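Sharing in case it's useful to others searching the archive later.

Someone asked me privately for the predicted structure of Thioredoxin domain-containing protein, so I'm posting the question and my answer publicly. Question first, with the sequence:
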Amino acid sequence: MKRIILLVITILIFSCESKQENTTVAFNATFANSGAPSINIVGANFNEQLKLDNNGSVNDTLNIPSTGFYNIVLGRDRMPIYLEKGKSLTIKMDANTGQAPIFEGTLANENIFTREKSLRDAEMSPMELYADEESLYIEKMKSNKKAEDSILVASGIKNKSFLNILKNEEIYTTAFTHNMYPQYHAYITKNNSFKPTTSFKNLNNNIIISDTTAYRSSMAYQQMVDNKIQNDAYEAFLADESEDKDMTITYLNHINNIYPNGFAKEKMVTQYLQYGLSPNEKLDEVYNAYKAINPSKENLAEITSRYNTYKPLTKGNPSPAFNYENHKGGKIALADLNGKYTYIDVWATWCGPCIAEIPSLKKVEKEYHNKNIEFVSISIDRKGDYEKWKKMVIDKELVGIQLIADNDWKSSFVTEYAITGIPRFILIGPDGNIVSADAPRPSDPLLRKLLDKLI
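And my answer, the predicted structure tokens:
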């Protein structure tokens, strides 16, 4: 009797083991003559570096978190691939031949289709599509989908996992494109008053943006959700008529209403704070809100480091100084401007958004010309563009005090203000203390409201 019981237990154990899901992918690849020491396999919640041998080859087992689409990152190049648990993929490429990669293994057909689809997508011009009127845009989107469906049927692929995931990816990508259309159509056609129809707005009504599982497994879903939430938060920010409104606080409140603490919220907020964390009066509130989502030690350390950099740049602290060459000759130091408010524009001749602010800056300077304020533009052009800067100041009849920093991005004023993107606007008080290390742009009506309160 004991033998029978032991036999039954053994069979049960063996049955359980045999039914365990194989979570790995047998991955073999050769990138001949690439010169790269390694590749990275990147997914929505996955990033693994694989070293290449002297032949550019790797033979490994990938323990992927989910079946789906990933990217191979080789230097500056990215190649989409499809990986499925329990299956195998072999890739052969030679950088010297320029020929298409060869796919082998149980996932060969799926990756041939994925590769060819990525090439078709690359041939499409999003800007041409966004330039179309709404009805034509929708017609083209439907036509493109019909063509892709026909190609997929002709491929003969029967893999249900691949087909289901591909279907969802197309839904996410289409939703992302719809989200982008109103903004880009208005920009390309120079029709700032453009508003999509109600039927267009309803195209994404069935899209769920709170699916934490999809956010963990799909890069396309992440892209679509990130864009949707940021757009919605921005619209809420514009509709907010309070004077102390803050875009980052609006974003945090918006995302708190959609996602619980966890991977999705942490990833979105951490990414947003790469540019959304600012040295303004909301810095402590934003930082404390971030800590409240229980981020990982690594992410918290990164944001804390930036917080500590920005804290000395908040209102009331002494401003970092400068002493730079004046276009009219000699040098101008910040100390020379004590007794007046100083509105600083950090810019460069190669910066399109900077140039776009010039007309508004001229108007503001003219309006406050006889007030207790100086307008200073500090160029961070490289030494090689010195003459270009000199010429542009004259050609565009730039107003105010025109200075050029001594070491472009590495200039002390730039690094001490932790400037990583331009244009950047700074307002300093008559006492040399910071009023705003990230002041409103000249084109922003909030600038005039701020100046009117102070001057």
